[in-house]
Amino acid sequence: MKLTVLAVGKLRESWVRDGCSEYEKRVRARLPLEVMELKTAGEISRRLPPRAEVWALDERGREWSSTELAEELRRRMSSGSQGIALLIGGADGLPEEVLKGAQIRWSLGRLTLPHRLVRLLLLEQLYRALSIVRGEPYHRE
Q1: Is 126 among the domain residues?
Q2: Is the pTM for the entire model greater than 0.90?
C-alpha cells in the first residue's frame, strides 16, 4: 500500500521543512510515501493516484485517536488496498467538490491549524500509527 500526501502550498519555514523531512523518512521506512506540493487546490483532482482511497483533511471530519488511525491503516494494509491519498488544503481549506469526492473526511481536531502545521502533524501521526501497527515502542498509552 502506498500513501500519497497532496498538499496545497509550499513549506517556507525551515523548521517545518526539517520536521516534515524527518517524519517522511520515518514513514518511508515502513510504507511507500509520496508527498506532492500543489500550487492550487484545483490541481488535486488530476494528481490523485488511480485506485487510491481519498482521505480529505477537514476540520468538520471524523476525529480519530492514534490507535484508531492505526486500526484504519491496518485494515487497509491487510485488505490489499492500493493506497491512500491524503489531501491537505491551503489557507482556505479544500473545495467542496473535493470534499464530496473523498471517501473519508478526517479531522486532526477542532482547532484551526495552519496548513503547513497540518502537514507536519499528519506525517507524525502516520508514523505513530504505523509504529502502533508494527508493535514498536514509539506510542505510549
Answers
A1: yes
A2: yes
